[in-house]
Amino acid sequence: MQQTIRLGKRLIGVGALVAAGFLAGYLVSPHVRTEAAAQDAHADQGPEKWYCSMHPQIIRDRPGLCPICEMDLIPMPTSLVADAAPRELAVSETAAKLMDIQTSPVERRSVAVEVRMVGKVEYDETRVKSIAAWSPGRIDRLYVDFTGTRVRQGDHLVELYSPELISAQAELLQAVRAASRASTETSEYLKDSARTTLDASREKLRLLGLTNAQIGAIETSGEPLTHVTIYSPISGVVIGKMATEGMYVGTGSHIYTVADLSEVWVKLDAYESDLPWIRYGQQVTFTAEAHPGQVFKGWISFIAPTLDARTRTVKVRVNVPNADERIKPEMFVRAVVQSRVAQEGKVMHPDLAGKWTCPMHPSIVSGQAGRCDICEMDLVTTESLGYVAAEEDERLPLVIPASAPLITGKRAVVYVSKPGTEHPTFEGREIVLGPRAGDFYIVKGGLAEGERVVTSGGFKIDSALQIQAKPSMMNPEGEAMPDAHQHGEHAPASGTPAAIQPRCPVMDAPIDPSVYVEYEGKRVYFCCPGCDKKFLADPERYLDKLPQFQRSDDEPRAKTDHTNHNP
Q1: Domain around 267
Q2: pTM here?
Q3: Model confidence pLDDT, tens digit, residues 398-430
Q4: 188-207 vs 212-221: helix axis angle to the nearest 10?
Q5: How far apart, in whole angstroms, are the C-alpha atoms of residue 305 and residue 197?
Q6: Is there a contact between 259 and 123 (Cβ–Cβ < 8 Å)?
Q7: Residue 311 resides in a domain
């Protein structure tokens, strides 16, 4: 029995060793296969060089980091075809794979832009009325005691005692009696004169704030009113109370402010980059914190003609129906505008094609010419306000992926894959871009539909062109770029640090004369801080790379202290 147990333990141990061997082989084999694949991929390219895709003038014989930007160096495709045109790069199939080049077609497609903005609800300025004294006097009664009170059109608000108004009423009654006497006269001149005086007296009272009904009541009763009543001109909410009972007021003194909240404004902040996608009459959807989950709608009625210098934004005004008054002034909102893009990057608004609208009230839309129901202005065509309506303008725009162009600020360069060539060939081409629409750029010139542009690997192609001194994104004329820290200067002058020791012994990069240490009575220069510490940790490793330490075998070497001179 014990022998059986020992035999079982041995079998378990052997099995564990076999499993461990398989596991080790499994873990090691991918690395071996990867290295073999990499060696096979570069076998036909001879000695491999490594360079920086951002600074192609940095070329090394082994992998490492770029001394300028510290990016990983990448393999340089050495299988470049020499007979390519000045603005073209032809590479082998293997080099194209190493550069990981991907292309996408230039095509016409429907693109939409979603513009997000934030803003605040405000009163509709056209629906705010001020209640003022039309004549000087004393306020004897205020019917609205506090702000926020709802009033209806025609509700009495103020009773005002005005001696001037009483005097004007007396003039009216005198004119009425004079007109009555003149009606029995035969002279037309006297009749006309009496009527003219009566009309002037009535108009004077109107200018002092009396209504036609009040004037008629005075004429009927034959007695002047001791107080004049001021009525609300609109229905709404009292949002301002500027007077108290017993106060003396002058002509034009503000007493109340009433606002109609059945329609409000939402003022949004749009950034400069959003302006190409915003048009009059566009529908805007927005949400408010007070009503989670509910979406409100409005229409753009005004876009400010100037930019706010402090916020760098433009005010966009949205008219919003608010019959239930759920949207309240001073609420913060988050708004979205959806814009479809047509040919030449214009905003499409097919719902308004061939329609007429009011510039002041874009919510008024008609199928024919006419007048606005609100302000009686002549309606204008939607096309005149910038809406795209004609069929020829609704063609889909020509677009490329946003990752395709290399943009320098003034120029936009793409690399176009040339079909029908023996080797993968890419042509650098300067193009004219329109605005960006989401993940795409609209193309205004330089490309044709159906061509394929590089969307991944463009910087590597550009770097390869720079290495060959061909025109590229950064060098449109094709001049060769200088090495790091040289900036196109000529050979260093005799006696300068760069002439004594041109390259860093650690990174093999051009030196920075301000970074050095004293070693054995001589200065050793480096490309950057950090290299000096590596040098001091093992100086003997780097001395053979330093010209100032090249000497004959019998030349003595003085042992001195070394000092770090990092700036």
Answers
A1: 113-123+260-394
A2: 0.57
A3: 899 999 999 887 789 999 998 888 888 898 889
A4: 120
A5: 50
A6: yes
A7: yes
